[in-house]
Amino acid sequence: MDKIKLKEMVTQIYSLTNDGKNLPPPILETVELAEGKYLNERGYEAIQGILALAEAGLYSNPTHGQDIRKLHDLEHITTDSEGYLYFKDKFVSRRSGDFESIFGKRKLEQLQSKCLFLERCKIGVTSFNVQFPFDFMKDAYNRDMFLDLDKLTRGRSIIFTHITIDGENTESHSYFMSGQIPEKVVKYNEHQLAFNQLYPENTSCTATVNEYVFNNGGHTPQAATQKELRQIELAFDALCNRCVLHKSNSAEYSWDMSPEDTEDDEDDEEMEM
Q1: DSSP strand E in 156-220: where?
Q2: Is the pLDDT of residue 266 over 50?
């Protein structure tokens, strides 16, 4: 594979397609892979084909980005009718799985955070940079997320709970809540409701609950604020790696998701009221 020729072809493709903006996202991904020299011989042949189509005028106008809308009202993050994700109108990822639920919102917040970090580092925000070079920048990203959390807490020690839920033949989902969380709240909250809606055929559920204290200089831990909680999620890997977390409690709960038991639980709640 001629790498010099490959670079020339990529440059030509960009010049013929409005800096790549007219390329459909799957095609743009291939071009970005070529730009990063991540292609094999078959990929090299694909670039030759894309260049030929660009020269023939096939990509003179954008054919994607229709019905653009925001997701969860997140700043700079949009999607189109074809299921592609954009940051400030630049294609950065494909939608995979559910992005409408609260778990999807968490994934999008992480994507948004990565894009903003790349922007701060003056690195082009592209689908290639979001996915591949980011592995090499993970330590720097984690450090940034930790420092942002440190600024938010201002020397306060905070307490939060990390909950992972799983069911029979379901994906595992995790989330964070502020303070100490009793069993009843684990079973009945917006995250559990979203999980039930994602897997309506699921018949059982298990929740692993780990309570943590982030010791940051304060004497008595206080419940994390909502802003701190969001930053904790982005900085969680850094917190674990820096050994600044103290696990104060842990538990595991399992329950049946059958309709009969759900009705019984609702009746019990009504009687308690």
Answers
A1: 158-167, 173-178, 204-214
A2: no
